[in-house]
Amino acid sequence: MPLQIFNSLSQQRELFKPIEPGVVKMYVCGPTVYDDPHIGHLRSAYVFDVIRNYLKYSGYRLKFVRNVTDVDDKIIEKARQEGCVDLRQGVQQVAEKYYNKYKTNLKKIGIQDPDIEPKATEYISKMIDLIQELKALGRAYQSEDGIYFDIEQYPHYGELSKQDRDAMRSGVRIDKNENKKSFLDFALWKKSKEDEPSWTSPWGPGRPGWHIECSAMSMGELGDTFDIHGGGRDLIFPHHENELAQSKGKTSKPLANYWIHHGLITVGGQKMSKSLKNFITLDEVLKEDPLYGDEVLKLTFLGTHYSAPLDYTPERVKMDRAVWKRFLEFFENARQAEKRGNAPSEKRTQQIYASFREAMDNDFNTPDVLALMHGQINQVYKENDPMAALSVAAAIRNFGSEVFGIVFDRNDVSSQIKPEIEEWIAKRQLARKNKDFKTADEIRENLLKEKHVELRDLSDGRTTWRVKL
Questions:
Q1: Which domains does the chain have, with CATH numbers?
Q2: H/E stretch holding 13
């Protein structure tokens, strides 16, 4: 079936029709770089990486933009906390430090770079131009502490979040700002305090508000209207609502035709966040499972529909490791079938691809794709047919690699670590020979803890090993 996407703007599933046939322009809100990234940030990046991969797989050419917010109240506060003497320079250092950490995390998990990655500080002049145009149109007004968007001059406010103005009160901070006409009016430009980063503007030294940043970057790179705008559900209001208002307030055109929002990661039902100190980093995941932690984490992300919340628990991780182990065992069986001279059936492989595409065309339903993969594996075991095994393996391997960015057939891991493991086994055997059982036990324990390698001492004096999931 043709691709259908749930559009947050219309609150219904819609047939996807790009503005330009065969081309998709997509903008995704990226990180505000003020602290260490956690797996909630990675889920966001991975969701849209999979969507981008599938659109390419389906034959579209993409222009994918993911921004970086490198000037913001949170970054300024972080610079203060880290004791930066020169706050202007400190903000830049903080942003660069945590941007690099974010990029390192994406690289570790195999998430690709966007086609364009604009930083807010590189678009200040475009933000100023946009604010001037909004003022000229009567959509914005100047106050003692900056420039504000005038909600009363924009009748469509609330069209994305589907809230009335009374309900919106609970979604914004009421700060008793006497410079604002309405509690919902939001800052387009903020006059800077003496020690804060600032840029020259027609309204004096200052810095942009958060929302105007994304409007300037998205329209600057993709035009007044583009195909897809993405981000987390927590951005629908007020960020995306305000972004839509100021963009449409300037152009009188839709900012994006499809708005895609992913669910958040929770821990025990609470949103994973820095403030609650319940976040989990990628380094923690990889320390627990250095060999397969990246792929298992992707399975965890794929196992819940992108639009739904994902509760990250030890039980869930254990279950997904078992799922990953099943894939490894299946591919090992397929390799043995291939060594015996069997070959896949192109017809059956194409049929499997078609079933995967049908699931993905249903609003990128990755849990259904995983269920189809497991169903195919079950069928192979029932049929006990080597050709069927290789056909299913080919389909899962290729689709998983191209769309999910997962190497399901990880037959290289044991060979990569084999020399190191055998060296440790030799050291352990020498320690045992010298009756240094403490060192021998430490080697065994460290291999299990650090490498997930389990040793087994045989009665003939040999020691075998295996990677334990």
A1: 4-262 (3.40.50.620), 270-404 (1.10.730.10), 413-467 (no CATH)
A2: strand 12-15
